[in-house]
Design a protein that fits this description.
By secondary structure, the chain is α+β, with helices and mostly antiparallel strands. The protein has a single domain, classed as Jelly Rolls (Sandwich). About 20% of the residues lie in helices and about 25% in strands. It is built from 4 helices and 13 strands. The chain has a 7-stranded antiparallel sheet with strand order 1-2-10-6-13-4-3. The chain has a 4-stranded antiparallel sheet with strand order 5-11-8-9, with no helix packed on it. Strand 1 and strand 2 form a beta hairpin. The longest helix is centred in the middle third of the chain and has 20 residues. The protein is globular. The termini are far apart. The structure holds fe (ii) ion.
Length: about 250
């Protein structure tokens, strides 16, 4: 019987340089985050060490081989793992979002809700021969996305990016961004993108859709209309029912 492992954000040594600081400074950001394509607002940054990636992959494979019930990561990927099903939302993804990603995103994407991230959907996608090999062009149900390559050894599978999906000829001049194991690629959710076919090997990537209810409550990023909400569990799709902005008090006091 395999011993269960407890994960914590402290297991992510690359991030601990930034975690714990009240706010990453522009100087620290410049040292850590590299623009991959500044005009498209795509950035690359180191996220996980190689040993952390290997340990996480082992855990993911163990879960994949188990007979635990599993959902699909999203409507386009057939193979992978939902992080909350593995019990990694609370100890790993939520602290990553709150303590590390939100301060970065507030500086890089203040106009896309970067400073107001309050929920996420996190999943690992797997590409392998005989399984999913590529991903068609799409945009994410997210204000912002981070996509981290975990391994294993692979060729191909680069991401390509066009413009925002609402723009005419958004895919006229796509830009390719290669994966580097341990590194994350940051982009706006509404930016058209996809993944080129896998060449050889197996590719596993952690994708976190970052959501800001302050943005999506006003305009659904998928249908571009005022959201019409139905109840759901957990984070749902990241919408909230806003409270009235006024408060009451008693005139007699
Ligand atoms: Fe995507």
């Amino acid at each position: 019987m395999r011993k269960p492992r407890l994960w914590d954000v402290k297991d992510v040594p690359r991030l601990t340089r930034l975690v714990g600081r009240p706010k990453p400074t522009p100087a620290l950001l410049a040292d850590t985050v590299r623009p991959s394509a500044e005009e498209k607002r795509i950035y690359r940054l180191p996220v996980f060490t190689a040993p952390f990636c290997q340990a996480l992959l082992q855990e993911l494979e163990h879960f994949e081989q188990s007979d635990m019930p599993k959902g699909r990561p999203n409507t386009m990927n057939n193979y992978g793992v939902l992080l909350h099903e593995l019990g990694l939302d609370e100890p790993l993804v939520t602290p990553l979002r709150e303590r590390f990603l939100q301060p970065l995103m507030a500086l890089l994407y203040p106009d896309c809700g970067g400073g107001w991230l309050d929920s996420h959907r996190a999943f690992v996608v797997k590409y392998a021969p005989g399984q999913d090999r590529e991903l068609g062009c799409h945009y994410d149900n997210a204000e912002l996305t981070i996509n981290v390559a975990l391994g294993k050894a692979f060729t191909g599978g680069a991401l390509y990016f066009g413009g925002l999906f609402q723009a005419p000829s958004a895919l006229a001049r796509p830009l390719e961004v290669a994966h580097v194991v341990g590194q994350g690629i940051l982009h706006r959710g509404g930016q058209l993108h996809g993944a080129r076919p896998l060449g050889t090997g197996e590719r596993w990537n952690l994708v976190i859709w970052l959501r800001a209810s302050a943005v999506r409550n006003r305009l659904c990023p998928m249908c571009c209309r005022t959201p019409d909400l139905v109840d759901d569990e957990g984070f749902g799709d990241g919408f909230t029912r806003e409270e009235p902005t006024t408060v009451d008090l008693c005139v007699l006091t």
